Structure formats: structure tokens, C-alpha cells
Predict the 3D structure of the following.
Amino acid sequence: MRRVLLCATLALAACGGVDEKAGDPDAHRHEAKPLPLNKVFTDSLTWDTDKSDWKIFHVDQPGLVFVTVHFDKIDGKCEVYLRDKYGAHMAREVQSNNPYIELARRITEPQRLFIWINAPNEKCSSQYSLEARVEPD
């Protein structure tokens, strides 16, 4: 009987703990989810379990890049960042009384870009729609 209990205990211990990141698969830049250009994508932020979302998209030619975000919750103080291929800051806006944010930036060479949507406080728990588009030069 002791052997059975010992084997069962060892088997359960080998299973490991609960993966805390399982509910947020795009919380970090290296986990950024692909975002096709000119398509509206929906996602959500929640202060307690999904504080940030990272998206990645590719710009194939020079032009003006637009990132448009529409939050379902007004005045959530959510943050939207545009980052370059190294993760460096290019543009940022914080949601105010308007649920709509648009970032614009001129890109001079083909590259990949990241969008980071962040919930800095408990007010920013909202679903959102996101679109990235490019107007070529």
C-alpha cells in the first residue's frame, strides 16, 4: 500500500504546477500575435488576468502607417504603443474620454512593427477592435 501511495505522490509531483500565463498568450513582445494589414481584429484587456496584448505586423514598403484602436469602454485610460522591430518606442497615446485612438507614423523602409496595448490600472478592462494599415508613398 505504501508503494502505491508513494508512486501516486511521485506521479502527481511530476505533473508540475498550474501555468499562470496560460490565459494570456500574447502578454510579452516575443509572444506577439500576427496582425494582417487592413483587417479589423478584436481582443480584450482585463486588469486581473490579461493586462497587455502584443501584435506584430509587417510593412513591405515605405509609407504612412496607421494603427486604429476602438475600445468598448469609454475613459478606460488604456495605453496604445507603436514599437519598431527592436521594441523601441515610436508612438504612444493614452485613452481619454474618447474610446477611439489612432497612431500615425512614417516608415522609410520595410520592417516589422509591434503594437502594445496595455492596461495600466483597473479602469482599463475592455474589449477593443484593432486595425493596422499602410498608405504607401
Remarks:
- Helices lie at 2-14.
